[in-house]
Request: fold
Amino acid sequence: MGVTRRTLEKKKSQGEKIAMVTAYDFPAAKIAEEAGAEILLVGDSLGMVVLGYESTIPVTLDDMLHHTKAVTRATKQSMVIADLPFLTAHLPTMEVLKSAGKLMQEGLAYGVKIEGGEPVLDKIRTLTDAGIPVMGHLGLTPQSVNQLGGYIIQGKEEPTVKRLLSEAKAVEEAGAFGLVLECVPEELAEEITKSLSIPVIGIGAGRYTDGQVLVLHDLLGMGGEWSPSFVKRFASVGDTMKNGLEKYVSEVKNKTFPTEEHVIHLREEVKLALYG
Ligand code: KIV
Ligand code: NA
Reply:
């Protein structure tokens, strides 16, 4: 057994930080697990990061399933959580159960993540009762980007601070085993973290959450020039890739690749028989 919800609860109670990162394919999942990340999130950010969409809204359950399968083929220890894509959590209960069930049964995910508070509490309860571990997601919820009016910091004014606090508690009470808090002031994230017994994982939520999550391509520097201010670039993988590819292209063009060491030859007797 790899990382479970118990592992995470223990880490919270011992004050040990939890490292979570997105993963969308086999090689990246393998590397992230080897690097020690406890949770791999097959985020619907895959729509933007690896499928080239403008937002997460076009991502389908089949997209999620396809990538979740690749990620779980690579992992032995890390907990794999798959996002329920746009709209899915708001469909009739049977549909939500089927979708989340697919991500576990076919995708082999440990559990699912659902964006939102009040409107999805009953679904969190139903899934949890059915044995599907659910991670909540509050604050900036990218599936609601059009409704929110953009990727805007959440919980800056008193009423939204209070609402987020009570929604976080409600998500825990509905049975969620963890909560992602995105793009909220540090003070609010700290208060939520202290008031919940389930682990709270922050992204752009400051220093005092129980753990951090970032989009893999952002933290590795392979997501283009722009990234949000809360992202730290830990590597420049995009530059490394471009460099390698430029060398390859130029060696093909100037005939320095391939050389003798990369060449396959006919055996001598075959050569003789063919060409004398
Ligand atoms: O889809 C995603 O990558 C996410 C994280 C940013 C939490 O939901
Ligand atoms: Na997501």
